[in-house]
Automatic annotation (TrEMBL):
TM stretches of this protein: none
InterPro entries (UniProt xref): Aldolase_TIM, ThiamineP_synth_sf, ThiamineP_synth_TenI
Cellular component, GO annotation: cytoplasm
Pathway: Cofactor biosynthesis; thiamine diphosphate biosynthesis
Every Thiamine phosphate synthase/TenI domain range: 14-178
One annotated GO molecular function: thiamine-phosphate diphosphorylase activity
Pfam families: TMP-TENI
Cell membrane found in the keyword field: no
Keywords: Thiamine biosynthesis
Protein name according to UniProt: Thiamine phosphate synthase
Length: 199
């Protein structure tokens, strides 16, 4: 189970991130599209060094080495601008690579250097207004032909639909809104984690 940061700052964010790691969070995607490089450096430096191996950068990839981060994410636009040779160069340096997709056709065509990819939105988004599935992803993924890349369900994922998502054929799920819109993010995380681990 993957957790994605809130795109904008939230109160007590670093404290919550540390608590999520202590509760067993395995991967934390830092998606802060409006952060400058300096803001990103400050944000990462505030997170305990012992957790940096579990951080995934969505932007400012060039600062990964200085923070001992070996995981980077390619949003769709950046993926389209990145060659297979460039991806292989990252892999040869020990990086884990991920990306985002919005239909099974794009997922099936992904470069084999991607370890996993989000497919979204599975359900109506919790954090983004008017961000709804265009079709039925549960039907779409029956046409999955790419098994080199792990398929991660994102968008509207919460404890009530995790099991359904995994049963449909997704390898794992990613949470964003269900964590960051909650008054009790750690309790929400533990509830969802329990379902994933028992599946």
């Amino acid at each position: 189970m993957i957790i994605i940061s809130n795109p904008v700052a939230v109160p007590n964010e670093i404290v919550t991130i540390h608590a999520l790691f202590e509760a067993g969070m395995q991967l934390f995607h830092i998606r802060k599209p409006d952060f400058s490089e300096e803001e990103m450096n400050v944000f990462i430096a505030a997170i305990g060094l012992e957790y940096h191996s579990k951080l995934v950068l969505h932007s400012h990839h060039h600062i990964a080495d200085s923070h001992s981060i070996k995981r980077i994410h390619f949003p769709e636009k950046l993926r389209s601008e990145t060659t297979s040779t460039e991806l292989r160069a990252y892999k040869s340096r020990g990086f884990t690579l991920s990306t985002s997709t919005h239909n099974i056709e794009d997922f099936n065509l992904l470069d084999s250097n991607f370890d996993y990819a989000f497919l979204s939105p599975v359900f109506e988004s919790i954090s983004k207004e008017n961000y709804n599935p265009k079709g039925n992803l549960f039907e779409e993924i029956k046409n999955r032909s790419n098994f080199n890349t792990q398929l991660i369900g994102l968008g509207g994922i919460e404890f009530s639909n995790i099991e359904k998502t995994l049963e449909a054929g997704f390898n794992d799920v990613a949470l964003l809104g269900t964590i960051w819109t909650s008054n009790q993010p750690i309790e929400k995380f533990k509830l969802c984690q329990q379902i994933v681990l028992s599946y």
